Structures are given as structure tokens and as C-alpha cells.
Amino acid sequence: MADHVDLVLEQWRARRPDLDPSPMGIIGRMSRLGAMFDAELRRNFGKHDLDRASFDVLATLRRSNAEHSLTPAGLMHSSMVTSGAISQRLDRLEARGLVTRAPSETDRRGVLVTLTPEGLELIDKVLPTHIDTESQLLAGLSAAERDQLAGLLRTLLESLGDKRG
Q: Which pLDDT value is given to residue 81?
């Protein structure tokens, strides 16, 4: 069985036999998968009037501690959202009543972002559908293949400097 990337690799091998295009096979497949995954995840988030970054903020608050609270810097560090997006996302989520921002009791200059009861209810509703969507996207792999792929991707991320915490 062959995919679209195989065609691209064959074409490069025919046109530039002096080069090894095999890295294109991995990066190209990862890029195509990323686009396919993103489309499905966006579809699921859209059903709940969320986008990926807003979901990530809510999920990060939900999983971080019993109080469901973090500073904006803590959110940025613990989530997959960039610093520029944090303030914008918090504005939107606060306007929807899903999070609150309040002065920190331990740092007068700091702010604490906390899930509201409505935010907690929403993330608890969206999370199972998110996990189901991801499971469906990975249905073509056995449990052993998923574990193997996760390990390989972890190794690659670590080699590129992506470390825990």
C-alpha cells in the first residue's frame, strides 16, 4: 500500500537520484497527519464553541491543581499556548464567564486565573469527546503500535530540546 508521500518520494528519486529524500517522507507524513488531526479536533471543539487554544487553557487549568488556578505565566509554561495568545485567550474566556482573573494573594503584582463553575462544567463535557476524537484518529494503530509511536515521537522531541516541565 502507498500513500501520497510515497509518490512525492518517487518523483524526487527520479529527478534527483543524488539526494536521499527519506527525511521528507517522515516530515511530510507528520505534516499531513497534523493537518488531518487539526481538522478533526477543530470540528469537535467547534461543537462546543471553542478553539484549540481555548480548550488547552481550560484543560490546563482543570488538570493543574485542585483549585483549577494558575498564573498567566504558569498557564503559558504548562500549556501548549504561546505567550502572545494567553492574554487574548483569557480575555475571551473571561468574557464568556469560563475563567476569572483576580489579584494573587501571595504576590501583589501577580494575577491568578481560575476556572469558573461554568468553565469546569464545559471542560468536563468537552474532554471525553476530545479523547474519543483522538482515539478515532489513532484507530488504525494497535495498542502496541501506539506505544511504539509515542516512544519514538518522545525520543525525537527530546532530541530537539523538548523537555518535561
A: 65
Sign of CA dihedral 134, 139, 142, 145: negative
* Helix or strand (DSSP H, E) at 149: helix 143-159
CA distances from 53 to 79, 82, 143 (A): 9, 9, 28
C-beta separation of 123 from 58 below 8 A: yes
Pick from 95, 96, 74: which is nearest to 86 by CA? 74
Residues of the chain with pLDDT under 50: none
Arithmetic mean of pLDDT over the chain: 92
Find out whether 111 and 102 touch, Cβ atoms under 8 Å: yes
In this structure, the number of other CB atoms found within 10 A of the CB of residue 53 comes to: 19
